[in-house]
Amino acid sequence: MPELPEVEALREFLDENLVGKEIARALPVAISVLKTYDPPLGALDGTEVTGVARHGKFLDIAAGGLHLVIHLARAGWLQWRDVLPSGPPRPGKGPLALRVALTGGDGFDLTEAGITKRLAVHLVRDPADVPGVARLGPDPLADDFDRDAFAALLAGERRQIKGALRDQGLIAGIGNAYSDEILHAARMSPFKPVQNLTEDEVTALHEALRTTLREAVERSHGLAAGRLKAEKKSGLRVHGRTGEPCPVCGDTIREVSYRDRSLQYCPTCQTGGKPLADRRLSRLLK
């Protein structure tokens, strides 16, 4: 799933390649992709793109006083095309979900792999009209997201820290992959209860969060949209690397599996050397 660093990199890419250009037409291909009907998607025809913003994992393309808000979900992606196909896209079983054609002949496709279709596109007058945007917590890379602001968010939380970091209503933009990376950098168990964090651990977690996300954004800076997925994978130290050696200590990276996702961690760095073989059988580690 694209998370804050990749979506921020897409925002930068679109800001450079899309702003100032005129939309010829936005064409929905998959029935499930468009989540709004007023204003109609045709209202974008002939409008000029004036800006591209990011809200957590949402992209926000402003044109003609409207906002095309995109959430790529787990398997969605944006593919830029310098020259779009001349014919109209055909609805079918392929990955193409929506095409935005510019008057210059270029544009982009939104695609989604797999059979579970969660990619979502909203055309609204205000980004806050999108429920997922309205409920977002603060952006962790914002200038005012300091240690005290982070501690205030965690106050009263009684969840495990992995779940808290992934909650978009608490902090915007962090998903399964970067929560693993942040917790590895902070040398902290994913199952540690938030209420058990010491003041020093809150400080360390805040520093790991900011550093991990900033470094990921910096690695992606200036890359074309098509190269961002490979960059994300190459930059991850534990997530998706089950069975590989930890780059910090050399221990074997382990995995805890759930029905629809998994987490990865280093026992030596994060759990005192204790492997968490099965989430259902593992006790919460302090």
Question: Can you tell me about this structure?
Answer:
- The protein is of the alpha+beta class and 286 residues long.
- Helices cover 27% and strands 20% of the residues.
- It has 8 helices and 10 strands.
- The strands form 3 sheets. A 4-stranded antiparallel β-sheet has the order 1-6-7-5, with no helix packed on it. The chain has a 4-stranded antiparallel β-sheet with strand order 2-3-4-8, with helices on one face. The protein has a two-stranded antiparallel sheet with strand order 9-10.
- Helix 1 runs parallel beside helix 6 and helix 5 (176-185) packs across helix 6.
- The protein is elongated.
- It starts with a helix and ends in a 16-residue tail after the last helix.
- Residues 280-286 have low confidence and may be disordered.
Major sheet characteristics? 4 strands, antiparallel
Termini gap? 29 Å
Total beta strand runs: 10
Strand % is: 15-25%
Computed Rg: 20 Å
Average pLDDT: 92
